[in-house]
Amino acid sequence: MRTTAGAAGGRGATDDLRTRVAAAGRESVDRGRIYLIVALQAGLAAALAWVVAREVLGNPEPTFAPAAAVAVIAASLGSRAPRALELIAGVVLGIIAGDLLIGAFGTGPWQTGVIVFLATATAVLVRGVGALMAQAGGTAVLIATLTPTAPDLELPRTLNALVGGAAGLLVMLLLLPINPIRTIRRTAEPALDLFAREMTASAEALAGADSARAKEVLERMRGADQKLQQLGEVATAAEEVVRLSPVRWRRRRVIAAYRGGTTHMERAFRNSRGLVRRIVTTLRDEEPVPADLPAAVEHLGEAVRLLNREFIAAREPVQARERALHAVREAGSAYRQGLGFSGTIVVSQLRTAANDLLQATGVSRDEARRLVRKAAAG
């Protein structure tokens, strides 16, 4: 019997490893595709900025135009347009400060240090730490070390930076915008699939009284926060794209649903992690586990799967709501059959997670509480 159980456990561990490796491979491919699009955006924006600065404005030294364009494209996924404007402001501030201070101090190693210090300090006073400070300091370095001293260069360089920033925004929002639905799908599916998969694994561990497997689930969930946080960042960036890019306006409804639900999804994940922690304690203390309790946890995971499918299909997430409430009803049934201390907390955490999922589907906080209380009463 032990040999059979050990073999089954080995097969299960092998299957889990294969699943994780396959998921990691798909994630790497998807990440590569996104970065390829960003690289294309950067190349197109740099070329456009150079042409406008040199051929239209007649500037023989258009270096800062493509530099600003690439800086805008390289902005982080979250809040790209505001960050892009901050980057442009940083380039302009660095140019002005560098040019003015070179006239006062000249060029050299200590002069470079003083110029960068003053440009960075000015950025800190204006906006604080962040992209503005980094870009102002970096641009001041270029001005102090790579650009020859010459009068009246502030305006041409500033215009170059503005042209580059505008080119970056034009490419990012109009000419070659990232597909927000595809970007969200590539981020959401791994994150929510992980969430649902770990709920299924914890339900199986609870049903099989396998405390070691429950501990493994808990460890994996502890390391998964980044995926859920990334989903929130991507949803914010996608909402920005559909708001500013006319090409993507028709996707606003789907993106708005995801954007509104990501905060509640993160809370549901954290509460579910607390649920798994109590499952470990329940099994360790050999508390009673009615069959309805693992069934409730499994239904909670299925609600997450349904939520993702219905959001992507732009449907009202009715099935996800019903499955979350079904999980609450199953947990209430388990509670009435008799649970230990930790088992009772498992039920409480499940209800809280279900409440979060209901709010992620667009249900108001008060209505979600009412529905959960009604389902818990049976």
UniProtKB/TrEMBL annotation:
<feature type="transmembrane region" description="Helical">
    <location>
        <begin position="158"/>
        <end position="176"/>
    </location>
</feature>
<dbReference type="GO" id="GO:0016020">
    <property type="term" value="C:membrane"/>
</dbReference>
<dbReference type="Pfam" id="PF13515">
    <property type="entry name" value="FUSC_2"/>
</dbReference>
<feature type="transmembrane region" description="Helical">
    <location>
        <begin position="34"/>
        <end position="52"/>
    </location>
</feature>
<keyword id="KW-0472">Membrane</keyword>
<feature type="domain" description="Integral membrane bound transporter">
    <location>
        <begin position="48"/>
        <end position="171"/>
    </location>
</feature>
<feature type="transmembrane region" description="Helical">
    <location>
        <begin position="87"/>
        <end position="107"/>
    </location>
</feature>
<feature type="transmembrane region" description="Helical">
    <location>
        <begin position="114"/>
        <end position="138"/>
    </location>
</feature>
<feature type="transmembrane region" description="Helical">
    <location>
        <begin position="64"/>
        <end position="81"/>
    </location>
</feature>
<keyword id="KW-1133">Transmembrane helix</keyword>
<keyword id="KW-0812">Transmembrane</keyword>
<dbReference type="InterPro" id="IPR049453">
    <property type="entry name" value="Memb_transporter_dom"/>
</dbReference>
<protein>
    <submittedName>
        <fullName>Aromatic acid exporter family protein</fullName>
    </submittedName>
</protein>
